[in-house]
Design brief:
The chain has two domains: 7-253, Alkaline Phosphatase, subunit A, CATH 3.40.720.10; 300-509, Sandwich (Jelly Rolls), CATH 2.60.120. Helix content is 22%, strand content 26%. It contains 13 helices and 23 strands. The strands form three sheets. Strands 4-3-5-1-6-7-2-8 form an eight-stranded mixed sheet. Strand 16 (389-395) and strand 17 form a beta hairpin. Helix 7 (126-139) runs parallel beside helix 9. The protein is elongated, with a radius of gyration of 25 Å. The chain starts with 6 loop residues before the first strand and ends with a helix. The chain binds zinc ion (ZN). Residues 14-15, 49, 153, 200-201 line the site of zinc ion (ZN).
Amino acid sequence: MKQWAKRVVLFGIDGAGTFFEQTPTPNIDRIFRDGAVCRRALTEMPTISAECWGSILHGVDCRRHGLTNWVTGKRPFPADSPYPSVFRVIRENRPDAELASFCEWGNVNFGIIENNLGVYEVNAQGDELIQAALDYIGAHDFTLIYFHFDIPDHEGHAHGYGSPEHLAAVTLADSWVGRVTEAIEKRGLLEDTMLLVEPDHGGTPPDERGRGSHGGDSDAEKYVSFFAAGGGAQHTELHDMLTRDTAPAILHALGLPIPDTWNSRVPGGLFADVPENLPRPEGLPVRVEEPRLKKAFGVFEEELAALKPALHLPFASFDALPEGTERTGKLYLVDGLRGKAMRFDDGALRVPCPLKGGSVSFTAWLRLDAMENRMPVLSVRCAEDGSGWLCIAATGEDHLVLSVRLPDVDKIRHMEVGLPAKRTGTWIFAAGSFEAEAGVAGFSLNFEPFMRQLLPGKRVMGDGKHARLLLGTDDLSGPGQRFPGVLEDVCVYDKALTDEDMARLKAYYVG
Ligand SMILES: [Zn+2]
């Protein structure tokens, strides 16, 4: 296998999308003048950092690598995953290779690159990060260096993507690309080095509060620019490139084999020995078991007219959220099981709920990226003082719990269901119910009949005036606790759901 380059440098520029076209980037213009460019490389959905960097570095879509912002902050990437990072593939083929990663966002070094590879890792900001890299390059002949520059994404969130502040940050990142390249050149290493520039995603223009966001599938979010120069990169324009094709491109440049578990391929035309229109392999089949839903759904409100939810949140758009809804933190609209779903990260929603205050139930599709003790998911609060509620949360590593508190009873009742770790990453249909007349709470997962518990005390839930639905991080969760997952089709009912209702819901979703 031909080795085109002795070393590769990947400059990852967070949140820069295709905004290089709108702001001066004199260094990138000069360095990549005779190289390859893809003006519209398609990134992963959802267009969120960990998902996108995970795919760029692991050569697979995000369902396969399973990385999210939450997961990458909590645990190292499994060293024995069938989807190795490009760092691991190099290490397994070249035990002595010098590998380095300089990141403004520590999650990449902690949670995306495997921790047992002897990669030289630095987490720092701005000039301090660049100086650390210059020192390293001055003293080492490396095989791969990855950079993560966060400042464009930071400014994009704060001022909108494409705002003057965001564009200035892209220009600043360009100057860092120039400084690092100059150091490589000074060492006489530029000749056989392949340089790559690539963002993970773009972002939206300033909204009414002057802020930007990403996670969706608009062109400004999902397309990024890709630049390659040196080390075999042809002078050409690339078409049909996914950002996850970056990992195979790096291995091809270094003359190393590409794992057959990856569903990515070297971008056609990037190298003289890679033809255009190379098919992208399917990779290893995903092992996550997804519920088998019906192919076509009727209108929820029509087919389930007998259930009459007091509140139904299909998450079609942020604008479609009910009036009076409060939003905090980072929330993302992403592709769900049958429509759109809401990813919560550190965000939360408080939605006013028209409930009378007697019986109450909820249903929701939920997908947990991981489990954490006291992790909030969803709660229905039935009184202003927060005294009556029904909620689900995770407890420990492997249990989902339905908790119920009645207004005049101090004790909180819990009903736990063991949830094996393999259920993380897949969709679950959860339902909680409280029947005022009998004083019975019920909990159901995946359309099973309710497990039930008799509760003592006053048999009403609230005052019928101040009910609200809380999704994501709430005031019952501990400090720093988050809901690392996704919700879709959330409903609240002003009645107790029965096993017959559950059968109706099953017939609607699953058939
Ligand atoms: Zn990002």
